[in-house]
Amino acid sequence: MSSAISVRHLTKDFRVGLRGLKLRAVDDVSLEIPRGEVYGLLGPNGCGKSTTLKIVLGLVSATAGEVSILGCPSATPEARRRTGFLPEAPYFHKFLTGRELVRYCARLSGVPSADVAAAVEDALGLAAMTEAADRPIGTYSKGMLQRIGFAQAVVHDPELVILDEPTAGVDPVGSAAIGRMIHAMRAKGKTIVLCSHLLGQVEQVCDRVAIMDRGKLVLEGRVDDVLSRRDRHVLTVESMSPAAREAAEAALVAHGAVVTSVTHPRRSLEDLFRELVTGSRDA
Amino acid sequence: MQASFQRVSWIARVTFLEAVRQRFFAFLLILGAAMALSSVSFRVLDFGHGELKFIADFGFGGMFLFGSVLAVVMTAQLFFSEMDNKTALTLLAKPLGRGEFLLGKFAGAWSVLGVFVAVLSGLLGIVLWAREQELLLLAEQAGKVPPTFSASGLAQFALLQWLRLGVVASIVLAISAVARTFLYAVVVGALAVVAGQLQWIAQDAILKPSESPAYEAVLWCTSRLLPNLQQFNIGDALVLGAPGVPADAVGAVALAGAAYMAAYVFLGALLFKRREI
Fold this sequence. Notes:
Chain A is of the alpha/beta class.
């Protein structure tokens, strides 16, 4: 079975200024994104990840290289029919209500007339936007905009969902809600490509990651493989007395181990925040 | 084919909704309507021409002027709002062809121009009819032949104006497909309207013998590539009766307008395909 996304030797040059100077945004990048996984594409601003996604979606042409989505050349409507996309900082027509927007996108995505109403309700439900669906988009908060953007991206039940900075500008509660939507999509067997600066979230939801810098791919692999340090170990122990701790350290040293640090585990500030504000949906 | 038509109609529908909500559209519609309605008050300035002709010319002028401004500015604005706000990113990431997108934008803009022409023509028709009734009574009392206007002629004129504005909108859309900024598209679009109004000069000149093949080539290209927008201005003959316009001549003008619209939308779609979003 073909990969969800296959990128081979992709290069993109932009011409800038009056003299047409060449700016290489993507430099010989090759990627294979397997089906059914959550894939994180990371990198600093201007590293070429958004350009790569735009080429994948056929919005920008490649200078060199090949890109295919689910076995189809990426620039074809057939490839886009099976793909959902949430752009970075999405902006929608403010005069439409959330429901009208999702219906509009369903019709453009080729959802049959008879199925549109059910597909719209499913997408709104998945994005937890059913209650606010009849309000004009102009009244939505940043988090709600991201969620309605998510709903329009998945309304046609795509096999592949591409999310460009889905949590940019969203508070931790909204960010966690988007994380839950990603988990729900993965549970349905969808492939999700997530482009984000929030490394903590990427670590939590992604199966694989790729890191880009200055247009080049610098690292790619399974999250567990790229993050774990095989030469070090962490023991988490409850109710340990100082004497037990000394004895444990001595035992480890006796077996040739080097104890580099013994500390109390910390929870993340994001976890603490989410724990304290549980119940509030969105600012 | 049916799916493609549906996608185009959805783009057109949302474009239409976006356009009619703009204050700019309402402002120009009110200005045009005020011009058509106020023509009765200015009829004393008819410079010796018939009153109905003066009223009709006043209304035609409003339709031409404000319609042209609307066709240029609104069409460019509807296109660039999608580009600048990045809504085009969301839409074009769907199984929607670039040609379908552009055709939908054109259809939406042209529909709004249709509303504009219909409202102004309707108001002008009411003003002309009301004054015609007054003049009928006066003419009867004076034993003169009363002036009349043709409602069907006004409808034909309105249709031709709609086509003319459609040609302008299609040119602006083709320019917008390659323009980097809204201002550039508006300025070049406005220049294209002026050139279209003066195109008859090139048509006249090409009939005269010239010794320069380059000059002839330029004239030939100008007279073929640019539409002659003056050919739509046959309101007097259509609305005020004599000498009248043969139906086949009106049909030929309408056909030429439709052909130019189709050609410029097609050109715009080709250019837009190469644009990076």
